[in-house]
């Protein structure tokens, strides 16, 4: 039924101006529109709506992620923009924060200005 429709995903923010700067200038997503309820971006054909909420307690799990071709280059680019990957005690990660899964996928996590956990994944 929805297979041919455009997917839209939502991420909450209590800091809309910081979120706009982060998603537009740091992650370089294309700004589509903005209103008093949120900001909408295009990310490779998927719509991301950053919605303004009154209060927010970020979840402890990934809320948004991207499959990338070269995770190390992406992380270094983020580092150049002062965005660094999270390090978790329960995972073995390299110096960049990359965890290699049992199927050899590489995954790293970072946070947006509200503390939402975002991820990068490189498939084997």
Tell me about this structure:
The protein is of the alpha/beta class and 124 residues long. It has a single domain, classed as 2,3-Dihydroxybiphenyl 1,2-Dioxygenase, domain 1. The protein is 17% helix and 36% strand. It contains two helices and eight strands, in the order βαββββαβββ. The strands form two sheets. It has a four-stranded mixed β-sheet with strand order 1-4-3-2, covered by helices on one side. A four-stranded mixed β-sheet has the order 5-8-7-6, with helices on one face. Strand 2 (30-35) and strand 3 (38-43) form a beta hairpin. The protein is globular, with a radius of gyration of 15 Å. The protein starts with 7 loop residues before the first strand and ends with a strand.
Show the helix and strand layout.
Blueprint: E1 8-13, H1 16-26, E2 30-35, E3 38-43, E4 46-52, E5 62-67, H2 71-80, E6 99-100, E7 106-111, E8 117-122
Parallel strand pairs: 1-4, 5-8
Antiparallel strand pairs: 2-3, 3-4, 6-7, 7-8
Superfamily (CATH H level) name: 2,3-Dihydroxybiphenyl 1,2-Dioxygenase, domain 1
- Structural class, by secondary structure, is alpha/beta
Note the gap between the termini.
31 Å
Mean pLDDT: 97
The biggest beta sheet is recorded as: 4 strands, mixed
Rough outline: globular
Could you say what the CATH architecture is? Roll
Overall number of strands: 8
Name of the top-level CATH class:
Alpha Beta
**Helicity range of the residues?**
10-25%
Flag low-confidence runs: none
């Amino acid at each position: 039924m929805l297979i041919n429709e455009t997917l839209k995903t939502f991420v909450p923010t209590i800091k809309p101006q910081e979120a706009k700067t982060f998603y537009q200038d740091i992650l370089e997503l294309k700004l589509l529109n903005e209103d008093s309820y949120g900001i909408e971006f295009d990310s490779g054909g998927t719509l991301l709506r950053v919605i303004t909420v009154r209060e927010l307690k970020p979840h402890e799990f990934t809320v948004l992620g991207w499959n990338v071709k070269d995770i190390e280059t992406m992380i270094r680019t983020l580092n150049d923009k002062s965005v660094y990957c999270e390090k978790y005690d329960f995972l073995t990660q390299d110096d960049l924060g990359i965890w290699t899964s049992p199927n050899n996928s590489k995954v790293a996590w970072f946070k947006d200005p509200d503390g939402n956990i975002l991820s990068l994944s490189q498939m084997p």
